[in-house]
Amino acid sequence: MNFDALIQTIAIAAIPVLFAITLHEAAHGYVARHFGDMTAFQQGRISLNPLRHIDPVGTILLPLLTLWLGGILFGWAKPVPVNFSALRRPKQDMLWVALAGPAANLFMALLWGLLAKVAWMSPDSYFAEPLLEMAQLGVKINVILLVLNLLPLPPLDGGRIAISMLPHRLAFKLASIEPYGMFILIGLAITPILGWLLAPPVVGLIGLINLIFGF
């Protein structure tokens, strides 16, 4: 991607990215509070202010680098702190806390799909073309985050979901790799492997949303 195209993509993607990471992380905090953990609330992290959730490397540098290199969009936000031992039923409630983030991304992908349909149906509007491009990127960004976070690798949400659902012995073994999880994920990201894993469900889900809204 050349520099001019990169700047244009950043301008269009900024709003979808900020909404995607903010609502994803805030959803974890809201659900954790619902099930008894007040950690995120006490630290001011249950917030729709994007600045509270931005990680300089994961939210800014890495997504820009992957966009420039033309690979699959990759990055992360500053995780909302959750004290799972403070949940009323730690192992069971972990499932709902973990699911909240991907569910928020699915909800936003559908909203962006609806907005894309509105823009597509208003071709004469001055804002139709940039709005359609932004909405299509919004769908793509949220679907990528949804699928990425459902990989069964702690500390990703999919890893938490797996830990919650597995028998205690297997859950303990999976949880033990959490300190190395991000290193494993970065290792996958700098090889074609992560793209191979994510591409089929990402393409399938984006296609389904396109089919639902017909744009």
Features:
globular, 0% strand, mainly alpha, 215 residues
Q: Please give the share of residues in helix.
A: over 70%
Number of domains: 1
* Chain-averaged pLDDT: 88
> Strand count, sense and closure of the main sheet?
none
- The residue ranges in which pLDDT falls below 50 over 5 or more consecutive positions are none
Integer-rounded radius of gyration = 18 Å
Q: How many β-strand stretches?
A: 0
Our estimate of the beta-strand percent is: under 5%
Backbone shape: globular
Topology pattern, helix = H, strand = E: HHHHHHHHH
Q: With helices defined by DSSP (H or I, 4 residues minimum), what is the helix count?
A: 9
Structural class: mainly alpha
Please give the alpha-carbon distance between the first and last residues: 25 Å
Structural description of this entry:
- This protein is 71% helix and 0% strand.
- It is an all-alpha fold and 215 residues long.
- Helix 4 runs antiparallel to helix 5 (128-149) and helix 6 runs antiparallel to helix 7.
- It is globular and about 60 Å long.
How is the topology of this model organized?
Elements: H1 3-34, H2 39-42, H3 56-69, H4 90-120, H5 128-149, H6 157-165, H7 168-175, H8 178-189, H9 193-213
Helix pairs in contact: 1-3, 1-4, 1-5, 4-5, 4-6, 4-9, 5-9, 6-7
